[in-house]
Design a protein that fits this description.
Helices cover 17% and strands 26% of the residues. By secondary structure, the chain is an alpha+beta fold.
Length: 287
Amino acid sequence: MNRTRLLMIGVLALALGFFASVYVYKNLQSKTGSGTESGVDVIVAANDLQVGAKVEEHDIRIIKVSGADLPPGAPRRRADVIGHGVIVPISKGEFILPNRLAGENAGAGLPSLIPPGMRAVSVRVNEVVSVAGFVTPGTRVDVLLTGTPGAGGEQQTTTVLQNVAVLASGHTLERTATGEAQTTAVITLLVSPDDAQRLTLASSEGHIQLALRNPLDTKQDEVPSSNSRGLYRGLAAPTPTQPVIRHAVTKKIAPLPPASTGITVEVYQGDKKMDVVKFPDESPETK
């Protein structure tokens, strides 16, 4: 009796376990099936993509995510990303979004980093000019010019450009992961066409110096030019030159004596004037 009861209890337990397993399996399968049906294809990076790189077939992979988790504008076709240049670093597994890629037919490398309407201008620098090598891609700088305006004038320093983005340091388009200094002879700046002319002129007019600034500080300051007299206290200001005023001199011209109408003869006796005798003009014009 006890054996039969134990056998029935065992069979009942196995049946309940079987039904519970089937229920859980079907529940999980339904959830997985619904997720598959609502999932959409999206492209993510299969490798770390650096600035200036060109996206190749092996750099991407397609995964499925729910529509609610899909970023706005995320490319869903391979043709939307393959062949485009990378303008913002993309880590492995991140979505490849349009704002991280260069435009169509923009190529890769440095040209792909130049937005429409902007120019890339390189300036020669040394360790001092490049702020001990800390002017790296992605930083922002002010451009200072020291020169002598005019012939024989006093040397002055003025701020030519402010809040200029650094595109490249030498042949490097990205900063190091640790933010270490990079010694290079050339810095490439991103400027407008007008500022490109000013920067080129400043490079030939005097000495260029770069001033590193906080990337969050985008304020354009009104900075007056500085000269050597402003560096020393107590130095007398230059005496202003008084303008020389020249007065025009008007010469008075004496009136001409009236034209003679006859002949005048003065009669002297000794040294005394005795009389004046006038004879009428007998010329043909007076007749």
